[in-house]
Amino acid sequence: MREYARRYRERHRDRVLARERELYSLNPDKYREKSRRVRQERSPEYAKTLRRIQYLKNDKRNPRNKEYQKAYRQRHHESVLASQRAYAEKNREKIRERNRRYRSNNAEKLQSLVKRAKHARRAREASAAGKFTVEDIRKLNTRQRGCCYWCQVNYGKTYHIDHVWPLVRGGSNGPENLVLACPTCNVRKNAKTPLEFAGRVL
């Protein structure tokens, strides 16, 4: 029945809204009391979220549109910065707690992002082509089943991103030239080619 009612409201939205407005005008006190009772039963966070959803749904400027957001920030650059600074000053502890919680819940993702940034810098310095994403590293980890590419030892969460053909010797920074290695193998391999390093592994 709920699914049928939802579909009916979608098909006859104007008619349903007109009927609701008519019922409200006939007995406004009844509906105000119902709204007050619902607000008391539900948490303030729920009510805040509900108001936000209604605002976004009915706002013709569509603030979720990235192009609109970008244009707005460009037009009101100084006021946006001032607003952000004021919010940060007023909610310093709240922001710190949110950041701590995010770092705790996304430790692996952040670790991958830091490693990706470090290798991107090295690639720029070596004028190497190609780039990779966090998703590429996740796929490598799945493919290697958590084991070092060179010695097959389980590296856990302490893996290094290794370039099979070194950047300083013309290797690419793309996913086709990457493997995950344990810290020991990566440090020992350094700028060696696979053939140069193979004897040391054996």
Structure description:
The protein is mainly alpha-helical. Helices cover 67% and strands 4% of the residues. It has helices spanning 2-11, 13-26, 28-41, 44-58, 66-75, 77-90, 92-105, 107-125, 134-144, 183-189, 194-201; strands at 160-163, 178-181. A two-stranded antiparallel ribbon has the order 1-2. It is elongated. The model has no long low-confidence stretch (mean pLDDT 83).
String of helices and strands = HHHHHHHHHEEHH
Termini separation comes to 69 Å
| Beta content | under 5%
* Number of helices, where a helix is a run of at least 4 consecutive DSSP H or I residues: 11
Helicity level: 55-70%
Shape call: elongated
Largest sheet: 2 strands, antiparallel
Q: What is the average per-residue confidence, as pLDDT, rounded to a whole number?
A: 83
Quick structural overview:
By secondary structure, the protein is mostly helical. Helices cover 67% and strands 4% of the residues. Strands 1-2 form a two-stranded antiparallel sheet.
Characteristic key phrases:
202 residues, 4% strand, 11 helices, Herpes Virus-1, 2 strands
List the helices and strands and how they pair.
Elements: H1 2-11, H2 13-26, H3 28-41, H4 44-58, H5 66-75, H6 77-90, H7 92-105, H8 107-125, H9 134-144, E1 160-163, E2 178-181, H10 183-189, H11 194-201
Antiparallel strand pairs: 1-2
